[in-house]
Each structure stands twice: as structure tokens, then as C-alpha cells.
Amino acid sequence: MVVAVCIEAPKTIKRFTVADGTAIPKGTLLKLSGDYTAIASSGLDVFCGIAVEEKTASDGITEIAAAQDGIWDIACSTAAVTLGAIVVLSGGDQVKNAAEADLVLGKVVGKALEAGSSGEVIRVAVGVI
């Protein structure tokens, strides 16, 4: 699994609730799974940030810090991503071009600063639309 790599540091970081038994590597794309609760993304989900710290399973910690902006290297899904496109979550730690409905439902990760083919890692301005 390829996690997101920070290229330009985020300016906004927020804390979300996580389950104690959950392990989340640094750089994982996170989705909202409930009221202000984050888990690793698994599909076309509501994006809530990128983990800026590692969360070890059953360590007693029930919060995680998530970046809300910055420039990140993120992998494309099985579909190509268009330069300048608004991108959304697409499976574990991957993005794809957004559909119009994704914008209305708040699923935006950010804006593609590079074009990419299936599985390619591209730069994404997170939180920028």
C-alpha cells in the first residue's frame, strides 16, 4: 500500500476520534465514518484528512491528527486522473477524478497538480477546489 507523502507542509491540522483497536499508518487518507470519527479510506468516501501521525492498534489513544491542506504525493486509482481535476477518494490511499455528485456530497480531497495514469503517484493540492 502506498500512503500519501507530504511535499509541502499543511497549515491546518484537526484531531478526529479513532477506535483504540485501529492501526493507521502516517500518510493514510482518512474518511469520516461517523460523528467526527476517522478511519482509513476504503472507497468513494467522505474525506476528512491525511494522517500526520502513526496510530498503533490498542495503544490506548483514541484521537488522530489529520492534515486538511498542503501538497501531497498520492496514488491514482485504476482510472487516469486529469491535470487540474478535482479528485476524490477511490479505495485505500488512492484518488480519482470527481463526478459532479461527489462535489455536492463533500467527497473532495483536492486538485490534481499533475496528470496520472492507473497507479501512478501524482501531486495533489489537498483541500483546494
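Above is the first protein from milestone M3; the second protein from the same milestone is given next.
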Amino acid sequence: MNSRSLPDKIWLLFFVLFAGVSWQSCAFGRLEAADIRIERGGQPPVIISAELARTDGERQQGLMYRKKLADGTGMLFIFDRDQVLSFWMKNTYIPLSIAFIAADGRIIEIKEMQPLDLNTVSSSRSVRYALEVPQGWFGRVHINPGDILVLDGIRGR
């Protein structure tokens, strides 16, 4: 026989549901975002709204478990020092393009990544940032290596 009263069971159920919702919103919630201007050598700049992944936990979570990502949005991965960066698509359901970016904001290279692919995609040299966007977005808005992200005020924690 269960000794818990009905009010105790209701409170317990409420706690379990609340804890689950709180964990899910933290784990899959959106990060702080910023509008970032991308200068395109003689063409009008492009603005992207990018979530800012600054901490180890935010960078490890990245865009995992997301089902969609609108054009003109993405995630900027911010690191405290230049290094060769490697990314994979574990638990990432959206096809992505990734730009590897130097400390001065210059795009060094752009690569494509496929959903759920466990192979790493790495920068060819040390960089400070990476920007993930929906696959093909860079091409659709004519962003290429050599273009520059204006990152004034955007730094790691």
C-alpha cells in the first residue's frame, strides 16, 4: 500500500514536470544573439543574427537537436585563442555550412557539413571563430573567403 497522500503525489508530479521542463529549456534553449555585419568587398554588407556560443558547454551543445535553422540566422562559436578548430555533426539534424574565421574577422574558408555525420570538419589553420549557418546560405548571399565579419564588442567570456 502506498503511504503518500494525493496532495503529496500532486506536488511530486509537479516537481518532476517542472524539473524536466527547466532542464529541457536550458539544454535546448537559445543563447544570447547578436546581429553581425559581414562586409563583402565592394558589395552591400549582409547582416546575420547569430547565437553566441562562448563557453565550453555552449560550444559542445552547438546546434544539436535543432530541427530547423532559418536563413539569415546561425551560431557563432567564440574561442579565447587561435587554434585549429574541429567540428562534427553528432545529434545535429540540420545540414550546415561552416565558416572558419581569423581573429581579425576575415573568413578563411567555408566547408559543408552533413546531418549526423561523425567525421570531423577542421579548419586548415588556426582561427578564432566559426560560424554555422543553414547549408548553402553563404553561397546564396555571396559570402566568400576573404569577406570580413565585423565583431566589435563580441568576445569570449
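Note on the second protein: The CA atoms of residues 24 and 95 lie 23 Å apart.
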